[in-house]
Amino acid sequence: MRTRGLVIRRAIKAFLYPLYERRLVRSLDFTQTPHHVGVILDGNRRWAKANPDSVGMTSSARGHRAGASKIVEFLGWCEEAQVHVVTLWLLSTENLTRPETELRPLLEIIGETVDALSSTKRWRIKPVGALELLPPWLQLTLETAAKESGSNDGIEVNVAIGYGGRREIVDAVKQYLTHEAADGHSIEKAAEKLSVEEIGNFLYTAGQPDPELVIRTSGEQRLSGFLLWQSAHSEFYFCEAYWPDFRRVDFLRALRAYALRHRRFGS
Question: Which GO terms describe its cellular component (predicted)?
């Protein structure tokens, strides 16, 4: 009886959600869509534990593969909503300290995911992060994807790999100082010139608009260092669903929540 009730509830949801999605789409003003959306793709490992396969396997690699398969679908939703830039946080600098038995499969999945995104020939791939910390084979994969997708006309997709917000700011300051030294400027002169705009010129996302909307899945309500500098005026949307379970209706809800907010930019 319990199983039958579960089947009935699922059938009702399957019928109602498309209707709800269409209603959400009709209510949205896509001229108010954020130009840049950042996403913290959280919950892959917890999804795997909550959804064991037919033989009871709950490995983190299985969760990461399920999360990777969601990305192409998500970027399609962003295309429909006329988003121009998407930043996907796939791997933090802290993640690089995980045990080799977990890290190696994760890096391989990321490499496969980047290849898959590039092979669609729909989007421009831009790796962002401390890429020098990654294995040479993955650095080459990222470099190749960026080069081969550079002429595509679609969304610019930042794949944040080996990324940490604090490290990005440190790297930006280092690059600024190196640039000033190469121009023959003293440290005093460089300090005098230093400004918000100058730091922005050396961030991983230099030349792109800051994210107006940042989405985090899995129910966690913190940024964990994601786009620390760029998100100063971002709107945040936290979703309970694990990333592999994130649906188009969840994305539409995030857009609706963004559209309903009055952005004050600190004023």
Answer: plasma membrane
